[in-house]
Amino acid sequence: MNLKLIVEDNNIRIDKYLSEKTTYSREMITKMLKDDFIIVNNNKVKPSYKIKVNDVIEIKDNYKVHDDINPCEIPLKIVYEDEHLMVIDKPSGLVVHPGNGHYNNTLVNGLKFYTNNLSDIGGEDRVGIVHRLDKDTSGLMLVAKTNEAHMLLADDFKNKRVHREYIALLIGNFPSNTAFIDAPIGRSKKNFNKMEVTPNGKNAKTHLKVLKRYKDYTLVSLVLETGRTHQIRVHLAYIGYPIYNDPVYQNKPTTEFGQFLHSHYLEFIHPITKEKMEFESQIPDYFQKFLDTLD
Length: 295
Hints:
Helices cover 19% and strands 27% of the residues.
C-alpha cells in the first residue's frame, strides 16, 4: 500500500526530510527517487528538491533494491567501437537500463557481459549510458567506455553538438512538407507514466520533414533541438498526428513491436580524436515490411 505524506515543513531537501520522517536511509531514498518510487505532487523530483508546505509526497510500496546489475548475454549490434566509445544499433523492445520493473535483460546488462570497460559516471545501473532511447524506439545510440569520453559527450549533447535524425510513421496525411513544433513538455498529472504538453513544462523543440505520403499515413524525418522524455511521441500526438503503433500516445490497437520510431542518423565529433563521425541505420524489418504493404 502506498504511503502519502502532506508536508508541513519548508525548504528542506527531500532526501534529508524523508530520512528523518521514514525508516528509509538517505541513500535508499535517492534510489527510490531515481526509480520513480517517490513522487511529489505527481511529479518526479531530484534528491536536492526543497520541499514546500502542503506538498504531497507519495512513497510507493514494494521497492526492491538491485545494487548488483548482473551481466547478461544479449546480442548487441555494434556499429562502431574503439577504446573510448561504442555506437550501438538498439532493437525495438530493448530497455536501455535497469529501473522500475526491468532489472535484467536490458542494454546495460548486455554491455556489462560484453565488456568491463564502461564509464561509471551514471552509476552502476547506467554504466556507459550517455543518452537514452525509449524501450520501443530502435536505432543508433552512443555508449561511453571511459569517464573522460562520457563527460565530453554529455557536454556535447547538452550544447547541441550531437546531431540525431529519426524516422517515424505518422497516422494521417500531414498537410505540410515541413513543420517546427515548439511546445513545453512535462509529466502528466493524470498518468505518471506519460508526458504531456503543458505550460509549466520544460522547453521542447522538434523539426519535422515529410519523406513520403501514403493514403492514411505519412513517413517523416525528425530532428530534435532538445531531448525531453518521449519528446517526439508527445509532440506528434499533440499536433494530431501520433506515431503509428504507439501503445501510449494513440488509442488504436498496437502490436508488441511498439511505436514506429527509429533513430537512423547520428553525427558527432569524436571527443578524443576530434574526428567527425557519421553513422546511418536502416529502419527495422518489421517497420519496412509494413511500409511495403502501404505501397
